[in-house]
Amino acid sequence: MRNKVLIVDDEQSILTLLQYNLEQAGFDVITAMDGQTGKDLAVKESPDLIVLDLMLPKLDGMEVCKQLRQIKIMTPILMLTARDDEFDKVLGLELGADDYMVKPFSPREVIARVKAILRRTQVQMENEQEKAISESDFLQIGDLKLAIEQYEAFFKDELLELTLKEFELLLYFAKNLGRVLSRDQLLSAVWNYEFAGDSRIVDVHISHLREKIEIDSKKPVYIKTIRGLGYKLEEPSKP
Q1: Looking at domain 4-128, what is its CATH homologous superfamily?
Q2: Are 8 and 38 spatial neighbours (Cβ–Cβ below 8 Å)?
């Protein structure tokens, strides 16, 4: 079965180039030239991945990403922009984008990124399809429970809505409970140095996790910051 990719970009030349190369690589492709149409197609067509430009008419890429995540559409998003701006990059990831590329880029690089994202999400889907899971496949830390084979995490028995990278980061922390882990260690283990030198990626994902597993994200009891060293996951002390 061929994967379906939605490309949203207002530059016809880029749209045509990406569509041609993705189709040659074996993908089915649908396109849109403004953010509102792109969002509507994402809802209607259920693509496997969205290539989303940042600067778009009607709705910009940030807003499209934000609105899709708000209605629980978790389709992987590869965000494109002509601006190599750290703020844009971090904000895009905070809003739910899975990866980020700066123009100009080669079609080959886009295809490689698309395939890499789809491989990661396929792992998650396959594990979610596993119905039976033994007790040994769970990790329990305070009110936090991880179902390893199903790629699911629960806090106070409520299922958490985590991205694949958030789950992998949380699982790595859980397997190294009590150990101080540097940002470089986390980049290597979870991202395989895809964002080498950009430790802000780690900070962004930890901020997301804290919002989901901490009673007060400003006073974390699970993921602690160790100043000058990194982070560690602790089991909270009982009152």
Answers
A1: Response regulator (3.40.50.2300)
A2: yes
